[in-house]
Each structure stands twice: as C-alpha cells, then as structure tokens.
Design a protein that fits this description.
binds adenosine-5'-diphosphate; Rossmann fold; alpha/beta; 35% helix; 17 strands
Length: 469
C-alpha cells in the first residue's frame, strides 16, 4: 500500500509535542511491515533544516483567496529515518523558525494543505490512502472529495487522526473564499456552530476517524469543546488506536544523551548515574525520591496546579522529595514555577523551555513522573517513563487510563481521579511510601521496563483499518 501521511509536525524535522513522535514513527513501522509510507509536512526554517540536505522535487503554485503563492516540494535526503519526508516550502508563510502560534496560522496551514493536494494531484502514482493528522490538515478529506480541482483524488480513502481535539482551528465565513472552488451545496461539510471548523470538517468527511487511545474516543463523545454531538453521530466510523513508541529512539540501552546507558539488568546503577547527574545539575538531593514533570505548561496538562503542589509538598512535607519540572507554556504558570525556586532550593527546580536531550536524561534519572492531566488523548510521557523504569503517577483520563494500572489493582503505577492539588499530593505521598519499600520498588522497575508499547502492534492495527477501506 502506498500511504501518505500529512502533518504539521514530524520528528526529527519539527516537534512541538506527541504529534511529531507519532508521525515520525508510524510510517517507519508501516514500511517495516512491507508498505510504502511517507510524510508530507511544511518546510520550516528550523535548525534541523539547516543541518540536513534536501533535494527539490517539484515547483508549483497555490492560491489562497486572492493571493497566489509559489511553492517548492523538497525531499529530505536521509536514509536512516526509515521513511521519506517531503516538505513544502512556501516563502512568506513557513520560512520562520517556530511551528505554530503566528497570527496567520489559518492562512499558513490552509495554504499548506492546498499546496500538498496540488502536488499530489500531479503525481503519476497517486497514493492508495491519505492519512491526515490533527486540525492543521483537517480540510484535506473535504477538499479531496468535494473540490472540483481534486476530482482525480476523490476515490482515495482518507483517515483522520485526532491527536488533540482541544485545538480546532475555527475561523469565520468571511474567509470561505480561502477554500478552492466547490459547490455551495457542501458548505455544511466545513461548518460547525456558525464557523468554518477544520476539525469538524475532517470528522464529517474522512472515511475513518481515529483517536490515539480507546478511552479518549469514549471521552470526547461527551467532552470536546462543542463537537461532542458530531463525534457521537460519527461514532460508527471512528475507533481508538493506542499510540506506540519508537523503541529505537527511546531505548535506555543506546540513548545517546544519557549520562549512563542501562538495561533491565543494570537498571539500578544506570538510573542512579542519571539521577546523580540531574541532582548535581539542578542542585537536588540524590538521596530523596525524584519526581519529574515534562510537558506543555497548560491547563490541559494540569500544569496550573503544579506550583501549588510544589509549594505544599515543600511546606507540609519538607525535605522528603525532589521535584524537577521541564516545560514551557502559559506565562503565569512559568512565572509561578520560577518564583518558588528561591524558597525551596535543594529540593525543587524548574527548567523553563524546550530541551529534548534533557527530557531523555529526566526519563532515565527520575523515580516518578507526574501527569495530572485534565485531558490526555494518549500521552507518550508515561510510555517513555515505563521504558526507562520510571513509575507514572497519573490522573485516570484518556490514554493514561488505558496504560497505567494502579498498584492497588495489582498494577505498577499510581493513579488518582481528580485534578486537585490534594489528590496529586496524596499520590506523591503514596509514591514515597512505595519508594521506601526498596525491594518491591526495584522489582517494579524491572517489571515496567518489560511492558511492550512498541509501534509493532499499533502499526498493524492501522493497517487492518486501512484494509477495510
Ligand atoms: P502533547 O499533548 O504535548 O503532544 P504527549 O505526551 O503526547 O503530549 O507528548 C509530549 C512529547 O513532547 C514527549 O515526547 C515529551 O517528552 C515532549 N516534550 C514536551 N515538552 C517538552 C519540553 N519542554 N522539552 C522536551 N520535550 C518535551
């Protein structure tokens, strides 16, 4: 099968979160299973771009309303990835260093989608299936089936995966002319609640809709920023497939940023060396259990309660644990975390920013990872943590519910149900009690490192789904 993934992110070319990890691994595993999978993404002007070689494969033009753009498709020259990346360079829109958060993101990603289809439309061998990811590619299923220019593509099955339903990309009907011409009879297929909504359009028009965990699929039927009834209406064509992780990239035995590599056999000394490095770097106490948080500092992740948790753990239970935070996001959360550092030197520290290498050392050196998420479509952090022998402390929601079983239920992690400071604090205290039972704690490390969350299973599940189309 010739499968084309279209996405705003793809590791290692451009990453803001889990979307990149998924799109940077799934095609590789589909190729291993004997298919031909590739990725189309925007050509951002990032460090990755300047450090890698590309070959121009197509020159074309795209139109957005009254504006015309020329674009170029580049193929990344890198045989080690295990799949091809084609990135679309649109001068004026993507020649910037960040992926998102520009005022013209609507124009940027709509032009990208139009350029991608203009290019696919010219290919002699058109794909057997197009798999789109998140709202930045949400108009593709609609345009492939209803836009006159793309009639050649209309019989190609489309799959749309919701990695994050919080971001929908809505805009007003004053910009309907941005979409290439189609019969006005189909306006309803791009509309939701009086606005043009790419996520809603994808849910309506894709042949199949998937989410990145079964529990998230169930949850969004009653909570997804106004799209609940649409999701329930389209439930028959929707399914939840739990993400995998790329075991080649996330492997404590070979991971290059680590201070010391380790296997299940050498986990104790390996984790200790990484923990010591972290404690030295961030002025923490290596004798205490180390709790980490890695992620976007946003309400969705429950990051807004972390400053309160840090404050209360350090005042109500001083000197009993270390807490180390890596993330960036909403300024008031960043400020809240930074302000606490002066008061709790020695047992608390935060690194505000994005740091891929540090994240790997943290997964390796930590004893516990905190994930008090309000919404977690799948969550990759807990899966990486398990592979590195770090115990997840999570709120039972979405993919966290599907992948972490509480110690009290015969499992290996610590779970709670609310997004309240006291609930997280209670879990941290349970975790510390578990940490003090060193024999059981060490045995549990080995157990969790053996859990298989590799992409082999998930890649196969996607292929089964494709075959039904
Ligand atoms: P998201 O909702 O952000 O996509 P996921 O759990 O699916 O959440 O994936 C998060 C990914 O982003 C993980 O690979 C995590 O290690 C990484 N990540 C998040 N924030 C940072 C950061 N500040 N520095 C390094 N890596 C980060």
């Amino acid at each position: 099968m010739n499968i084309v993934h279209i996405s705003a992110e793809c590791f290692p070319a451009a990453k803001a979160g889990g979307l990149a990890d998924v799109v940077g691994a799934l095609p590789k595993y589909q190729n291993i299973l004997g298919h031909k999978a590739s990725v189309i993404m925007p050509h951002y002007y990032t460090k990755f771009r300047s450090e890698n070689q590309y070959k121009a494969v197509f020159n074309g033009g795209a139109r957005l309303g009254h504006h015309t753009y020329s674009f170029q498709v580049f193929q990344l020259l890198n045989e080690n990835l295990g799949f091809d990346i084609y990135s679309i360079d649109i001068p004026g829109l993507f020649d910037r260093d960040k992926i998102y958060s520009y005022p013209d993101d609507t124009e940027r990603f709509l032009t990208f989608q139009i350029a991608a289809l203009n290019w696919l439309n010219t290919l002699k061998n058109i794909p057997d299936l197009v798999h789109c990811h998140d709202q930045h590619t949400g108009f593709i299923p609609f345009m492939m089936s209803k836009v006159w220019d793309y009639q050649r593509l209309k019989d190609i099955p489309t799959v749309f995966t919701i990695h994050n339903g919080q971001y929908q990309g809505q805009f007003g009907f004053d910009r309907i002319h941005y979409l290439p011409p189609f019969h006005s009879y189909f306006y309803g297929l791009v509309e939701w609640d009086g606005l043009i909504n790419p996520l809603a359009s994808a849910i309506k028009c894709a042949w199949k809709v998937t989410t990145v965990s079964p529990s998230y699929m169930d949850e969004i039927g009653y909570s997804m920023r106004g799209l609940e009834s649409l999701l329930r209406a389209e439930r028959n064509k929707s399914t939840g497939i739990l993400n995998g992780i790329d075991n080649d990239v996330w492997n404590p035995e070979t991971d290059t940023p680590l201070e010391k590599n380790y296997s299940i056999k050498t986990v104790e000394s390996g984790k200790k060396a990484n923990k010591n490095w972290l404690c030295k770097e961030f002025n923490l106490n290596p004798d205490l259990p180390l709790f980490i948080f890695i992620g976007r500092l946003v309400v969705e992740k429950g990051a807004d309660i972390i400053p309160d948790v840090v404050y209360r753990m350090n005042t109500e239970h001083p000197g009993e644990q270390n807490i180390l935070i890596l993330g960036s996001g909403e300024p008031h959360i960043e400020q809240g975390l930074l302000k606490l550092e002066a008061d709790f030197k020695g047992t608390y520290c935060s690194y505000i920013g994005y740091n891929e290498k540090l994240s790997h050392i943290m997964y390796a050196g930590a004893d516990f990872i905190l994930m008090p998420s309000r919404v977690e479509p799948c969550g990759l952090n807990q899966l990486y943590a398990l592979r590195y022998g770090t115990v997840p402390v999570v709120r039972r929601t979405g993919g966290l519910k599907d992948t972490v079983i509480d110690l009290g239920d015969g499992g290996f992690g610590i779970c709670h149900d609310q997004v309240e400071s006291w609930d997280v604090i209670n879990s941290i205290n349970r975790a510390k009690a578990f940490f003090s039972r060193q024999n059981a704690f060490k045995q549990n490390r080995k157990t969790i490192m053996e859990i298989d969350h590799s992409w082999n299973r998930a890649a196969q599940e996607y292929l089964e789904l494709y075959k039904t189309l």
